[in-house]
Amino acid sequence: MQVHDDGQGGADAARGSGISGLDERAQALGGSVTVDSPVGGPTVLRLWLPLVAERPGHSLPWGAPRVTRI
């Protein structure tokens, strides 16, 4: 998923917990978050999640496909 806004940019993941919290949740599901937020330009947030999450210590449901990032 990709989200654009038309604000002034300059988002700082270190300042708050929103972006870092989203990233932690995405990683727990085997995904990732990237943020591009140049000062003066729009912010673009990209969230990538696999269709099937595989967590350490948990097996995939029977017949579930494995997800490979290319």
From TrEMBL:
Q: Which InterPro entries match?
A: HATPase_C_sf (IPR036890)
- Specify the superkingdom: Bacteria
Disordered: region residues: 1-25
Protein name in UniProt? Uncharacterized protein
Q: Which organism is it from?
A: Rothia kristinae
Where is the organism placed in the taxonomic lineage, from the top?
Answer: Bacteria, Bacillati, Actinomycetota, Actinomycetes, Micrococcales
